[in-house]
Structure formats: C-alpha cells, structure tokens
Amino acid sequence: MASTQDLKRRLRSITNTRKVTRAMELVASARLRRAQMRIEAMRPYADRMLELMAGVSQAAGSVRLPLLEQRDEVKTVAIVAVTADRGLAGGFNAQVIRRALALQREARAAGQDVVWFSTGRKAASTLRFRRMNVAHSWIGFSERPAYSDAQAVAHAVAEAFVEHEVDRVLVVYNAFVSALTQKVTVRELLPISPEFLERSDEENQSAPELAHPDFIYEPEPEEILARLLPVYVETELYRALLESAASEQGARMTAMRNASKAAGELIDSLTLAMNRARQAEITQEILEVVAGADALSG
Questions:
Q1: Cβ(4)–Cβ(277) under 8 Å?
Q2: Among residues 44, 60, 66, 47, which one has the least CA distance to residue 229?
Q3: pLDDT tens digits, residue range 163-206?
Q4: pTM: predicted TM-score of the whole model, two decimal places
Q5: Nearest to 54, CA basis, from 173, 215, 168, 171
C-alpha cells in the first residue's frame, strides 16, 4: 500500500494537472467562438462565389479551361491532409490521417500513384515518419488560418494539376458540426466538375431571389470564368482550413473537459485512499502506544 506521503504527492500533481486542463478548456472555448464567427462570416462569400461561377459558366457555355479538364485516365492522386499543429485534441488529428491513409490504399489498389500535400505539424510528422511522397507541407497557422495561407496551398495544388503532375486532388479535413461533433470530410477539389456548376446554377435558379437576369459580360464570360476558378479553389481551401480550425478548438475543449473530469474522479479516489492510509497510521501508532504501556506496567 502506498504511503501517505506518496499519496499526497500524487494528489498534488493531479490537482495541478486539473488546473492546466481547465485553463486549456477555457482558452479553447474562447477560440472556438471566434472560429465560429469567422466561418459564419465566410459562408455568404463562398455561396455568392459559387452562384457567380454558376451564372458565368452558363453564359460561357462549353469551355476548355485547365482547372475543368477531366482526365480520361487518372494516374496520380494528390491528397491534401488538413491537421493541427498541436495535439491534446482527442482523436482530431488521428481520424484525418486515418481517412487519408485509407484513400491512399484505395488509390493504390486502383493502380494510381499518390502525392501528399499537408497542413499542420501532425500530418507532416506522420507522413515524414512513414516516408511518404510529400510534395509540399505547411505549418504554423492551423489555429488561425488566413486567406493568404489558403492561397499558398491552392496555388501549389492548382499548379501541380495544370502541369499534369497530378490528375485529381482530394482534401481531407474535419468539418465543424458542433463543439462535440467533428465530421471527417473528403472533397474532390480538382478537377472542378462542370456538372457541379450546372447543378449549382439550377439550385440558385430554383430560388426566386437568386434567379439570374440576362447580363452583358465585359470581358467575355470565358475570361471571367478563367479568373474565377482559381479564386474558387482558394475559397474552398480557406473554408476547409476554417472548418478545421473550429473543429480543432471544439475537439480540444471536449478533450480537456473529459481530462478535468477524469482528474476530479482520480482526486476523489486518492483523497479517500489517503484518508484511509492516515487512519491506518494513527491506529497503528495507538496500538504501539498501548502495547508500550502494557509492557511498562507489566
């Protein structure tokens, strides 16, 4: 049985740990609110961007643009794994990496090569440890991504696609559902499907407030669409980074809350054990005193 001093030492250590986990929970909660506000502010822009692209695509008709090119044979797949720079967030990073590795196995089973792009230290370290073919890796902005960060990633993957280094680009990230729920999401970023634009245009036209009037375009719709497509790729990546940032804070808040709860239960258990040990020591001292008195009186 552990001594009273050992129990006191463990109790003090766990109490200090609980203070840290509670503080981290509060910090994650504050950052989560800010991340949610950024997502809510970004969504109308992304929706209007998609609406504008759909309208211009309809006006342009059948066009041949590099980012719309559907390859007859997909030889190389690029996987963009969006993770965090830090841990202590439960299974937040592990589930993204697990899903990305499953996509790699599926691609290789289909006879396709895989090239990796990653954001966050966790994905970078895991892929480096597994000796994967990593084309680009970005770190340092997982908790508060800027649009310029999304631009850097978008330019790299778009260039690889246009130069025929890759034939398909998939993004794997945690979509934010709530503070308790983060859903691993896989999106095909490139090529941009013309059917997707047509479907978006039909959805917009189904709502009277989003119906497209007739426009006279200057410059031509093809040129406008060529400029909008890279911006769309940047916007979709920025959305993924923001969703991942909010999911990270939600996962960390939940993990720290569970850790604080577990620490509290352990503190209660150790306090009970320490009280029993102290009671046993007192009882032993009383017995020794009584035995000594009996010996002297005898």
A1: yes
A2: 66
A3: 999 999 999 999 988 888 889 999 998 887 766 666 555 555 54
A4: 0.81
A5: 215
